[in-house]
Each structure stands twice: as structure tokens, then as C-alpha cells.
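Appendix B. Raw example, untouched.
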Amino acid sequence: MDMEGSDGSERGEDDASFEKQSALFALAVADVVLINMWCQDIGREQAANKPLLRTVFQQLVEHVYQAKVNRLRLQHLKKFMKAFNKGSEEQNRFNTVADYIQYCLLQFDKDCAAIKVDKAKWDSLKARAKLGRDMKSYAAIKREDRPAFIVRRLYEPTLKQEISEFVGHF
């Protein structure tokens, strides 16, 4: 898609809203973004397309941040699932699953703080909430599955043997 000539000075009118909307649309649908500008405009405070460039770069950096946060969320969820399945030493330090989930969420917050850009107004609350829900759901599923596993493992062989002996009497 060619967005050439869509900034205000090229069209002869100052329509910042259209500039931003068209730039954001281009970012949403494009795999590659090429920015064409005059050499003399590089570094100038009053460059013709500086507001447009500001919008583009803010959105690109925010996209990178959200991608990193989602990658962190998946890493922490995998770590939680692995520890929960093994009954790891780290997990065993906590009295309840809820305490362990809270500990994992605090670790996630620390990792998110390390990648946050100071002046940006982004947050990782949605990813944090999703991580918490995923951990609680996984723990609930495993808790429900554990009694059935114990019954199958401990009692099923004995039950089969007793049934076969009982049937053998007839």
C-alpha cells in the first residue's frame, strides 16, 4: 500500500487526525514500513512529517513492548506448569497454590519492569491478569485430575483382581 502524499503538507491542508489514522492503518496491515522523507528534514524539529513519524514510532515501540510482555507471560506460565507438575522445591516452599501463584505473578512483574520504557504509559496489566487466570485454571484442572489419577493407580489393579476372583467363583 502506498501512503505517499498523505501527510498534511503534501495535501495542502492540516488534518492531523487523518494523518494519524492512515499511519496507524498502514502499521496494522503492513509487514514492512518504509518511511520516505527529505534529507534536510532529518533532525529538524519542524520537519514536515514529524508528528506523523512520532505517531509511527510510538506505535511501533508499543507493539514491541506488548510482544515482549506476551513472551514473558508464556515463559512464566510454562515455568509454573513445569513446577506444578513436578512439585518442585520452589513450589513446595509455599503453603497454598494461591501463594505460589502470587509469587509467580510478582516475578512476572519484576521481569516486565525490566523491559518497560520510562516515559511510556504502557502497562502489562492485561497480560498479568491473563497469566493469573491461566495459572489458576491449570492448577484447578490438575487438582481435579489428581484424585482420579490416584484412584486409577492405587485401586484399579486391586479392584480388577478382586472382580476377576469373584467372577471366578461362579
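End of appendix B.
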